[in-house]
Target: Aconitate hydratase, mitochondrial
Amino acid sequence: MFNLSHRTANALRRMAAGMATAAPRIGDTKVPMSLLEKGAYINYQRIEDNLAIVRDRLNRPLSLAEKIVYGHLDDAHGQDIERGVSYLKLRPDRVACQDATAQMALLQFMSAGMDTAAVPTTIHCDHLIEAQVGGVKDLARAIDINKEVYDFLATGTAKYGLGFWKPGSGIIHQIILENYAFPGGMMIGTDSHTPNAGGLGMVACGVGGADAVDVMAGIPWELKCPKVIGVNLTGKIGGWTTPKDVILKVAGILTVKGGTGAIVEYKGPGVESLSCTGMATICNMGAEIGATTSMFPFNRRMADYLNATKRGDIANYAQQFSHNLKADEGAEYDQHIEINLSELEPHINGPFTPDLATPLSKFAEEVKKNNWPEELKVALIGSCTNSSYEDMSRSASIAKEAAEHGLDVKSKFTITPGSEQVRATIERDGQIGAFESVGGLVLANACGPCIGQWDRQDVKKGEANSIITSYNRNFTGRNDANPATHAFVASPDIVTAMAFGGSLTFNPVTDSLVGSDGKPFKFSEPNGNELPPLGYDPAVDPKSDRLQLLKPFAPWDGKTPTDLPVLIKVAGKCTTDHISAGGPWLKYRGHLENISQNCLIGAINAENSEANKVKNQITGEYGGVPQTAAYYRDKGIKWVVIGDHNYGEGSSREHAALEPRFLGGLAIIVRSFARIHETNLKKQGMLALTFVNAEDYEKVKPSDRVDILGLESFAPGKNLTLALKHEDGSKEELPLAHSFNEGQIAWFKAGSALNLMAAKAKGQ
Ligand code: SF4
Model:
């Protein structure tokens, strides 16, 4: 026996393939990516060809994530490949946008002057539907209120040959899983939970709208070569423990920034015990640890789901390609996590952050210790994270058992189906009946309370209270805009059972409830079955307060920026919700001027610990952040923001970058950035800079004037300098790092990535 190096083995394999000229190639078979699109085929041949080149170059076993990512390289020969260091130019297979982010993406795409999108693209109307009284009425109201936007998206998609999913059809990620995701594919989506498609073995990444526009325009997508975190699953999931508990546990281990710059790759024998939709749940909530995406290897459970959704051809094709849809033996990971599913307990995460993980058996104790409001006001199941047939069936089994004991829910209880397909099926199969019979309220197939589209009436603003959801995100005020709402995240099973307990201290695994007959009973383990989209010109009314055509941002004037005021020095956590709030602002996502009135209004000013109250350094008066920024802009004064760690975490919304740019900002200088937001800022022509020494954050005073030195020789890897002029006349200089590459520096100089693209299109 001799050991051949990977390189030698590959060379021999190709020689053999070359000699046998008639050997079939994987690309000889044409399988459509989706039943809904003609002429767009799965391109496994590109992966095969790219990997042959990459294997020769790297000469080492590859992880699954590497195989799919490098399999989509634009130039496998010439591309630098170093995990965590190089920037990859990639060719995603498709693009998905939700309605809130799609407005700006479509407006930008229109200004690029293209006839049609270079890759299949879909737009999904799910974020703008407010939950109030129940699915049918809420949907009708939303269609009325958002008519202009829906009409624009419908006619725009028709004009440019994009897929359109009307309001009520379902939530983007569930629709993608049911119709478009496929093993080994690569997709970008203008929503941070795009990784949901990793449940079907896809590299699916949340991006800003500008990235989506690039790919729609046929420009390669740029991504820092991801590190890979391996999560080895052993044992078997069962009882009250669900796939959601895997990601709740992982979030507790890795925290909200532990996945930054990495793909989380699940593997091991435990994977086979997870349903495909369960794997999607795990990947979906991987966004909460900042991961680039999460994914699973192709397996029998994926094939079952593909078959159940009438895509048996894709399952068979993936089976033929399965050697490239799993990691190589001996693949190396940047970090390793072991989880024994047989020992994993249900978890409840929160409040206020999704990485505060508490095992169910310790939760009541934590509630008391931390004085969290014990009464459970509302229990909410569904959303894109947990709305599969399996999720709904298991929750319905709990509701049925409670009904048998004569119980109604004690807390309010809402159900959000992820798609019309799921809703219609669970109506036919009785799960909706089971929920309604115990007092559940079925909401529209849309984001609703998950994105703050919730006209909540049961508590007043500021009143401390607890809610529990099977959603993914629980930052302060996310669901109901009430900063005193303690939002916890758990599996749909735990959420449903707790609705009957009515208290955060109720443990459905160990505690009993009293039935209407006065007899105590304990819930049985939940059970449930795993399985069962316009040519019109898009017109924008100049008087519209919902849509506004974009004007290009000004290019850099080539001068050293001097004497810039600090608009705000942000203290502590600053998510994209703090920078560009959701809720009532969502309706302005197609109108940059209007939505910019929410810029940074949630961020806390380090000077006075207040939100939306900053000193105007020219007039000396205090005012709102957007108004002060606009004052500076209208006087021709550029400004900077100073921020803390992980600035811009959370939702991928590009408005958080567009707004400061629109209001005249030049630089955002922070201790560290969340990946998507950093890229979004660069795309809009802003300087995204980090303190070389994190403690230098403390040296900047909110009243400082600053110069940014070194831009005349702005280059990759070369630090810039922040020159501070304090109010008392003293001065100091601090080194600033950045992650701009040559291409991104060109975006800054051109004023934005889109400006550069438009100039190239005109041949300038
Ligand atoms: Fe909608 Fe919530 Fe899913 Fe985002 S996380 S797509 S807001 S349901």
Summary: The first helix runs from residue 6 to 19. Confidence is low (pLDDT under 50) at residues 533-539. The two ends are 60 Å apart (CA to CA).
